Amino acid sequence: MRQLIPFKKDIIFKTKISDITSISLEHTLNLDDDTISGDFIVSGDYKMTEASVNKEDFYYKLPFDIALDSRYDTSNLKIEINDFYYEIINSDVLRVNIEVALDGLEPYIEKTYQDVDVEEDASILDINEDDVTLDLEKQIDDLQEELVRNHEHIKELEEKIDEEEVNIEEKRDDDMIEEIVEEEIVKTPSEKNDVKPSNIDTQEIKSLFNNLSDEETFSTYHVYILRSEDTIESVMTKYNVNKEILSQYNDIDNIKLGDKIIIPALTND
Questions:
Q1: I need a labelling partner for 235 at 20 to 30 A (CA). Which of 75, 128, 156, 191 fits?
Q2: Which of 42-46, 130-134, 150-154, 206-210 has the least mean pLDDT?
Q3: What CATH code is carried by the domain that includes residue 215?
Q4: Could you give phi then psi for residue 141, rounded to 5 degrees?
């Protein structure tokens, strides 16, 4: 946009003016923030009378200052002199008329899709729509990948929980059987006890003692179920028995996971 700003100034001379023989106009106008300021420099020479042979020089600085509205975009502003003319008033006043042109002065406008010239900016709109579509597709793909990862992670956690529950249940059953067997005093067949734990298969336990003779000096025994972390050595250490005694009651060379081991107590009657 081109904006024209008029400027008029009367210059009073100290002498009479008969004729302006030469005149020039320069300026030092600059934009500082939202203000245009500087000087117009009017110079030349003149005759005081028509009959004068000599010419007198003149030189004047005319300050100029104008504030621009902040609504305008001044990033592409150019300042030029569009017109200049003068006239002599009352034989001692030089009146100058200057017209300043401001090129590239545009108001700030927030454009919307309705303000865009469809034919002129069709390619821009197409590019923007493609960019938006690609961005949305990428976001959707990222969300889908995140959902798959979360689903797999939840599935792994559920499997671990199920596995832990099974292990806990198995260990609880083993501990319960071991606790019941160890807390109950199991007598030899010659010293039958009428107390029968409800959770123990008494027929199975009795069969473990079939190989014991009536001359056994031990009256108290433990029945231990062999678990995955056990060894014969760890069982002997736990119950403070040696291999020789343990061999008298068990086929230790063929014991496997889950087998029941008879362990005599080391207390004689």
A1: 191
A2: 206-210
A3: 3.10.350
A4: -60, -45
